[in-house]
């Protein structure tokens, strides 16, 4: 009998505060071109060297993520490898599980639970038992998870959210409309953050195959 293979995608969203640009020229300069016309040269801008002081990892541990930690696979390898990136060697690291949904009627709220700062401890917690015992794995609110990750992204700090990016719209009578509303909420979270600070978002996908 052939085994069924499920292929899914993990989204790694990385938020980086960009350093401001400095002008080397100190202002506009005028000089004469070959045709004796005045040329106005704009200042050359360079981005100063960026130092990563801290990396904060948020790993979604809702029910839809349990399959990824059932056995060793590319999902675990990707997260552990990312935590050991050479660019992060001199950076402080923080690891959190994140799940839940702000809904008093269902007795749940968004929560992030620390799993320390050691990649080895992180690796040992990438299992179904740890996923089930931190927060409320019944629910996930993608917008609030993005918002939490964005709050931690500031100058010198990178925030990484690992998620399957599935919206939890619950038992809505009109799920398509509910999904549209949720995506608009997510966009607004980014717009609000961009309005206050200059940030960059990098989205990376990892294909995961498990049986």
**What's the story with the biggest beta sheet?**
6 strands, mixed
SS class: alpha+beta
Query: What's the mean pLDDT score?
Result: 75
**Residues in helix, %:** 25-40%
Beta-strand percent range: 25-35%
- Give the tally of β-strands: 10
Rg, Cα atoms, Å: 22 Å
In order across it, which strands form the biggest sheet?
8-7-6-9-1-10
- Tell the overall outline: globular
Order of helices and strands: EEEEEEHEEHHHEHE
Alpha-carbon distance between the two ends: 13 Å
Residue runs with pLDDT of under 50 for 5 or more positions:
1-33, 36-48
Contiguous helical run count:
5
Give an overview of the whole structure:
The chain is of the alpha+beta class. The protein has one domain (6-18, 49-210). It is 26% helix and 30% strand. The protein has helices at residues 74-83, 119-124, 128-132, 142-152, 175-196; strands at residues 6-17, 21-23, 29-32, 38-41, 45-47, 54-60, 92-99, 111-114, 157-163, 199-210. Helix 4 (142-152) packs parallel to helix 5. The longest helix has 22 residues, at 175-196. It starts with 5 loop residues before the first strand and ends with a strand.
């Amino acid at each position: 009998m052939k085994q069924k293979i499920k292929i899914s995608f993990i989204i790694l969203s990385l938020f980086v505060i960009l350093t401001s640009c400095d002008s080397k020229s100190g202002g506009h300069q005028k000089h004469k071109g070959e045709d004796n016309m005045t040329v106005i040269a704009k200042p050359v801008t360079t981005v100063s060297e960026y130092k990563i002081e801290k990396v904060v990892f948020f790993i979604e541990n809702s029910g839809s993520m349990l399959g990824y930690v059932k056995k060793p696979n590319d999902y675990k390898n990707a997260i552990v490898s990312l935590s050991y990136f050479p660019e992060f060697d001199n950076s402080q690291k923080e690891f959190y599980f994140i799940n839940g949904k702000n809904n008093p009627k269902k007795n749940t709220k968004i929560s992030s639970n620390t799993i320390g700062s050691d990649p080895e401890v992180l690796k040992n917690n990438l299992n179904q038992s740890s996923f089930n015992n931190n927060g409320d794995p019944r629910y996930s609110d993608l917008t609030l998870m993005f918002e939490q990750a964005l709050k931690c992204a500031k100058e010198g700090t990178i925030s990484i959210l690992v998620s399957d990016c599935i919206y939890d719209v619950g038992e809505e009578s009109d799920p398509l409309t509910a999904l549209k509303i949720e995506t608009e909420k997510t966009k607004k979270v980014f717009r609000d953050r961009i309005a206050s600070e200059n940030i960059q978002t990098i989205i990376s996908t990892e294909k995961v195959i498990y049986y």
